[in-house]
């Protein structure tokens, strides 16, 4: 388990955000695109002990707010609120089950993007095209939930989270 406020994790979130800004707009499946920092928040909730998704969501939301075009604080608020629920949800269910992680990722993406959509509709009602955006929201949530099957094993290898326990760690 890693602490979210450690240098390697913070640098990795910056790296994922740079990927979100540069590469993912080029790689789209219809209207859906990958949001790597959101996937990392889901990973932190399911893979690491404690409530690790909330600080990761706060950092990711601040980065996305500072580089986005939405009203400042809307994505941070939506991402952090959804991460609090995800932290609670991940403690109650089987953390190793791939279908559970994919379903949780789908609902996390859908709730976060819905909150961002609602907050942006309040800030500029003339730009709110809700039916078209709900379709895109569903596609993005579904595509990212499907990517958890690939993203989780890659990050487990990167952070070395699947190493076997030593004997002295069995009784902590």
Keywords:
mainly alpha; 6 helices; two-stranded antiparallel ribbon; Arp2/3 complex 21 kDa subunit ARPC3; 172 residues
Q: Please report which band the strand proportion falls in: under 5%, 5-15%, 15-25%, 25-35%, 35-45% or over 45%.
A: under 5%
Q: Main sheet, how many strands, which sense, barrel?
A: 2 strands, antiparallel
Order of helices and strands: HEEHHHHH
- Helix fraction, binned, reads 55-70%
Structural class by secondary-structure content:
mainly alpha
Number of strands: 2
- Determine the CATH topology: Arp2/3 complex 21 kDa subunit ARPC3
Question: What's the CATH class label?
Answer: Mainly Alpha
Q: What are the low-pLDDT stretches, counting only 5+ consecutive residues below 50? A: none
């Amino acid at each position: 388990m890693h602490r979210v406020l450690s240098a390697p994790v913070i640098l990795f979130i910056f790296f994922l955000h740079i990927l979100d800004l540069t590469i993912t707009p080029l790689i789209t499946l219809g209207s859906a695109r990958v949001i790597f920092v959101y996937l990392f928040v889901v990973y932190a909730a399911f893979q690491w002990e404690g409530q690790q998704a909330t600080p990761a969501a706060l950092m990711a939301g601040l980065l996305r707010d500072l580089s986005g075009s939405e009203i400042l604080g809307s994505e941070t608020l939506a991402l952090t609120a959804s991460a609090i629920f995800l932290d609670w949800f991940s403690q109650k269910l089987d953390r190793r089950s791939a279908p559970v992680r994919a379903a949780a990722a789908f609902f996390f993406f859908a709730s976060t993007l819905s909150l961002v959509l609602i907050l942006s509709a309040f800030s500029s009602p003339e730009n709110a095209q809700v039916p078209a955006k709900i379709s895109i929201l569903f596609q993005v949530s579904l595509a990212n939930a499907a990517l958890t099957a690939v993203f989780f094993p890659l990050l487990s290898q990167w952070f070395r989270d699947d190493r076997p326990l030593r004997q002295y760690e069995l009784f902590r």
